[in-house]
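INFO  loader      accepted 1 record
INFO  loader      residues=579
INFO  predictor   begin
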Amino acid sequence: MRHPFFTVVVAAVLLLCIATAQLVIADKVPYKAFDPFPMLPTRPVPVLTQSQQATLNTLLSMVSNNWQGCIVTHNATLLSQYAEDYGHAVHHVPNAVFQPKNTADVSLLIKKVYKLNKNRPSTAPLPIRIVTRGAGGNVLGAAQVLEAKNVLSVLLDMSVMTSVSNVLTRSHSVWADAGSTWLQVLERTETVGMRPLVMPDYLGITVGGVESIGGWGGDSAVRGPCVDHIKQIEVVTSQGHIIVCSRHTHKHLFDAVRGGMGQFGVMTRVRLTLEHNEPHTRVYHMMSTSLDFVIGATKKVYKKLMKKKVQGQVLVDTMQTFVIPNQVPLIRVFALFGNQEILKEEVNRLAAHQQPFVYMIELTTRFSSESEALSMDQLIQKLGLQFDLVFALDMDTHSWDNRLEIGTIPALVQTGQWFKRHTWLNIFLTEQVVRNELESVLNNFNISNTGGGHIGLYPIRIDRVNRDTFVSIPNAGKVRRDEKWVYLLILGRDETTDTEAGFQQQLNGNRIIWNQFSTVQSSNHKLVTASVYPTNMVPNWGPADWRAHFGDKKWNQFKRAKQLFDPNYVFADTRSFGF
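INFO  predictor   done
INFO  writer      dumping tokens
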């Protein structure tokens, strides 16, 4: 999925580890947290209760002798870097951060925590909860420690494990550490002319973090989420066992950790499926004043350009749609890549319509020679549709894949918008809801209450999503037999007033939207009519919301999986499942 405001500063930092009697102290963290702040403010490290301190001391004494990585304790400046995420709304400073060198370290920590949780010796009177963190790309503290005093919560920083193997060209795959960013994976696979089948739009987030919540990008329209294109996963279970699982081996665990939000094991390495890459990308933008027309057009794009192969290849690789404020400067930014000189008549005519938003389809095709890619005129001719504005632009494929870090994020950092609180809501809706109800919701939005954040509406083919994982999308095909698509509505809002009132207003707005669509369930929650991509700010989110998100059948499967794979609750519930 597109996160045009996401980034992570991954610095090459030398870690100097100093051994002491019971712990290893890291001089520097390997990154400055998720955002490119010069240095985050130092926050006070919480004072542990006597029971918490005793439990931490016992854990450190059990781990330190064989720990190969680093452990951060006491240093408020360094620990404060982990009290941050993309949302900038939650700030929980950890007392201990474990930076593993390898899978063996992860296994060691989890084994000791499991043992202490199971036996509860007098020297460790409290249960321990492990929070796994990648790049901190969530928006409401899901990768931050718990503040409860009746447990000891410690953080496992997977961002330090960043190895990407040589590409296995025969099997079209590559092994990547869970802390690797998608950009690191892409740069390795590009050396042999390959790429992952599906990647998130922002490449600065980690492989493990994305696979734990699903992962959506432009290719997802007809390929589903990132988790559906994994060959194998190396998982450390809640007992510390290292298991390599796949569709053929340990399948139940394989399905559970994909989209499992870190509740059933720690992914340490992932074997991703690859395909042939092309050096060039052509981007097509097509705009209309009618949402209903755009929804119909996406279906025609699929039928005419994405489903049918010509000489063994589809004519279009990716498809996403966007909701754009109907203002000339924003139309030029989104549709024309900021070009101020071209298509003036068409832009002015579009903006003259008395409506708050216009709608854009974005398609791309990857190619080697120009003759392989349709021109804009050829594409429109094949569709047989008339849009209000069309534009195409060519660029090298790597620049397009990494467009957010190259272009969007630096601009947002410069304006200061990057550092605002990001009150995002990502919700999957059925086609019926999108056609009949979405515009009334959008009419309540404007630049002031979105903060200028983008609004995406990404079409997803239902039959391309594997239902064996814990990724949840609406059961649209069962609600209406003729519905074959769902739509991921991304309200990428920013809170620009810097006031508590403005922040709460946006949060309450998210709750109203979620309630409006999620409560249109069947009376016994058998059918899901709305679900979330789990990186959201919705106030008072809890088990009832997860039940609506999953539906009864999958929600019960999720709870049973917790009992099966983590009966001693080694992995922290940071998302309010009620465990």
